[in-house]
Amino acid sequence: MKTIEDLISACRVPPGKKIALKEYDPSWAGDKKIPKADRKATAKELLTEKVDALASAQELLYASDTYSVLIVLQAMDAAGKDGTIKHVMSGVNPQGCEVASFKHPSAEELDHNFLWRYSRFLPERGRIGIFNRSYYEEVLVVKVHPKLVTAQRIPAAKPNKEFWQARYEDINAFERHLIRNGTKIFKFFLNLSKEEQRKRFLERLDNPDKHWKFSPADLKERQYWDQYTNAYEDCLSATSSKDAPWHVIPADHKWVSRALVAAIISRGINSLGLTAPKVDDAKRKLLAEARKELEAEEE
Q1: Which of 98, 170, 208, 245 has the fewest CB atoms within 10 Å distance of its CB?
Q2: What's the distance, CA 192 to chain centroid?
């Protein structure tokens, strides 16, 4: 039987390797010899375990105040980014975590370089920042719709192979800078199949309570499925590094994707070797005096 480490390793994109998404099964659901109900129950247990572990890790992250954590979530529409954030981060103290979602750039944002609007939401030391979509949109949606480059008003910019390669290099340099300064980066691509997306869109249309989640723009973007697949393959291949690897998470089963994301994040934070701040003699003396004062009140 495969261990959790085997499963995580299978999701990781090797640095410097050109990948094809067809190599990553979006419908993965574990050992098919084990009944689905049992596999699902095991995944839920793992999610609960890792959510608790993540809560403890986040407390140490906040107390040590040395590292920050950046979680990047990218996916096709309806892949479950919002649900993943809700379930995986359910045990984390809201004061130590912030989610940033990025839509169409404003006029002010277009007046700056393409990384500027994202850098404003980077997490402080001791905190977790989650990017629901991210600076990777600049080599995904912008690459699929190259006319968007015109709106960025970059002098002499031509959206050709060299242009995209330069953007990959800028992103890699940006992440190296963050890592050197104490940011641990987790990058997840929730790998949803086209058929499962169709089913989820239909569920939204069939359920009045979910109508608000459906946009005609989602259906329009679905027409570019193959172009997005190519853009993701190029992006994941060019920007997965040793210290900030991409993980391609099977997303056709939400119970699988949530458990894997929680496991990867909790293990990654624990690998930092964080400890609570040490108490020196002066602080111990203050603590002893505080104890005496409080105990005296009892008399």
Answers
A1: 208
A2: 15
